[in-house]
Amino acid sequence: MFSNMWNVFKKEVYRVLSDRRLIITVFLVPGLTIYLMYSLIGDVVSDQAEEIEQHKTILYQENMPSDLRGLLNAQLNIDILNLADLEEEYDELLLEGEIDVVLVFDDEFYQIITDQSGVPMLEAYYNDAKQNSAISYARITNVINQYREEIIVNRLSDPSDYMVFDFDSQIVTDEQSAAGQGVASILPMLIVIFLFAGAMSIGPDAIAGEKERGTIATLLVTPIKRRDIALGKVFSLAILSLASALSSFVGVLLSLPKLLQLEGSNATMDIYGITDYAAILLVLMSTVLFITGLIAIISAYAKTIKEASMLIMPFYFIAIIVGILNSFNAGVSQETIVHLIPIYGPINLLAGIFTFDYLTVNLIIVVVSSILYTALFIYILNMMFKSEKIMFQK
Amino acid sequence: MSLKVDHISKTFTLSKKQRKIEQTDNKRKVAVDEVSFEAFPGEIFGLLGPNGAGKTTAMRCISTLIKPDSGNIYLGDQSVLDNSTEVRKNMAFLTNELKLEDHFTPNYLFKYFGRLHGLDDETIENRKAYLFERFGINKFQEVKVADLSTGMKQKISIAISLVHDPDYIIFDEPTNGLDVLTARTVTDYLLELKDQGKTVILSTHILSVVEKMCDRVGIIIEGKLKVLDTLEAAKSLNETNDLEALFFDLVKESAGEEDVF
Question: Which domains can be identified in chain A, with CATH numbers?
């Protein structure tokens, strides 16, 4: 009964695996591109962060008290220069990013605060459109606040009057789940996009392409049951799409530490155990069946590869939007009904698996519902292969 | 067992584009109109007609690719409507719409289609040895279809369509686009199949092929079967005893006495 399905399956897989061009575009290019792209993004982000970290602040000042100057020099990587020495307008230089911050203290600033004879003025200028300027300003403000507090404390007879309470904060986090959060916010969406992209790269050619080239009719005059064609096509597409998605997935895993800016061993996927991986694989396999079933139907409906690719696009965008929505979701839903929704359910469940927060019953629901949807798709595809209108209308 | 076409009709809905090409406002076109004929084992039945007469539609109905709106077709005691899978097991269908995938070699495709017909590997190998030898495919069996000439592709299509040694052979314009030598290989083989007692239906508009090969003919014009007889009897319908003259007369008559030539 299944021998013909197996024949179609083998032929479809062989079709892709025996074509060097397809092997490169379906299996190598996705993983490699993603690895290079994400590594590059990670490198750029980390270079930027490092550059900001190492940037020497250029501060021009007028009438700065020397004790504040000492405080700034002690705490910051900073060059403090005199505004009077500046030959150009400082606002121009701020706009160009040549200097970071300008501080203008009132004449006799230090004298007034020491005598407590008034409230002198300090004016600060910076450019919040320039990262270095904005960050320098924030750092300088911190030191100025600290300086102000010191002066207040000195004015009080009993410095402890100023202290209302002590405050100490410590980060208490499970490194595993912190890394998991990062992974959960991005990977489920990427996985679904990769599965879709994999199926899109071969699905239209395998069905719409056969219609367009007239090779489907050669198949249809053999005694093979239409159901076997549908099963063979969907399963072969599923396996190939899964392999293509895995290539992309490997690309992501390799670039993940750089992408998430998490250094150290806990940043990689070794925080997950065998059960987690098995659950991920189950979700992937059932989701890929749903996606290839859907793409197979669209491809069978379309008259040409081009038409199929165009008709698939809206579904692809919906999947991306669902993925993005999930990235912004604060928590993972444990509702059963959510897991019945195609694409959304699996993405939600994947996010749950990545954060170690999922119910086995929901995993079963995702797998079983995906299989049922796929069965429905295969039934529809079977009917489409039987329909002369769909198969042969020009 | 004979192949019986029993009052089949087939109507198509024309798309806007097709209506423009056909220069008609009618949304529906009757491609085949109440056509009946019977082809017998050990004979070649020729289905003749000008382009667009309905030959290919009738052949496609016989091949189970499309279903007639009314009427039925029987290959032996199997109906194409009720037992399409069984019918396909014992029938070869060839038309220029049925293509082979460019990426594969004749060897691979022959085995693939042999298996789809439920043959075991030994039978497939035997059939391949015989048919590839017969059509001179051996040298090209490992060359991708994409790299083969039109004639070789056609010969491979014929070989593959016959992989399961069927009793009913339905070939639509099998010599179209072939050079004289290749066309001769094909027509010789069809005569051989006839001698083996197969039921062969041949559709063509090349009258010389019909005269040389067919035992009986059906002439189809604008979807209607105008003549159904032995070749000799059909020719005698025209005073010059010439098939071409008869053919022209029928087309003229159908066009309503207009001078269509």
Answer: 3-45+176-392 (no CATH), 52-161 (3.40.1710.10)
